[in-house]
From TrEMBL:
GO function term, MF aspect, one: nucleoside triphosphate diphosphatase activity
A single BP term in Gene Ontology: TTP catabolic process
Gene3D superfamilies attached to this UniProt entry: MazG-like
Keywords linked to the UniProt accession: Hydrolase
Protein's name in the database: XTP/dITP diphosphohydrolase
Pfam short name (any one): MazG
CDD domains documented for this protein: NTP-PPase_MazG_Nterm
Annotated organism of origin: Amnibacterium kyonggiense
UniProt keyword Transcription present: no
UniProt domain NTP pyrophosphohydrolase MazG-like: residue ranges: 26-101
Amino acid sequence: MTELDRLVAVMARLRAPGGCPWDAEQTHESLVRYLIEETAELVEAIETRDATAMREELGDVLYQVLFHADLAAATPGEGFDIEDVARDTAAKMIGRHPHVFGDAEAADADAVVEVWEAQKRREKADRTSVLDGVPMQMPSLLLAEKLVGRAARAGLEVRPSREVPEDEEALGDALLDTVVAAAAKGLDAERALRSALRRFTATIREAEASEPE
């Protein structure tokens, strides 16, 4: 038994009859907050370069994955387990890396991205909008970057209206200053950005609707 097998067995034991009552009562929905918290703690460990904390938080995120897979295995209508998750993910990664596992060529990272996106489009051929698959509950700055990329795919040219600092530290200070200035005026910077993103999303959909058939 590998240590990963052992962790899977621990999870199964906790949720089995006679195991932990709290674990047995959980649902996918009730666990969402813990998945978000554990992911945030992992990000913190990565960004602070704390290898000890990273090892612990990776384990906590992995445990959340195992928890959801174990729940799915016991939930009527879902019926998949961690082996199915691993199998599907391996197949996806092989399919999206034909330059490694197939005959495609990709000489650099930019070419890899092109191969990845092309394969993804083939897999998701039923999608009708560049916005399909974008989780709108992403953190607002990450969502903004994602939407700008999707806008380009919809044929929208998004040009900056102001200059920004050349390095990320200065950019971070500028963003923080914007939040401080907004707060001083009683404005909610997060809500303002998310409102702007909703308007931007509508603009992208309008651009898609106006494309010739």
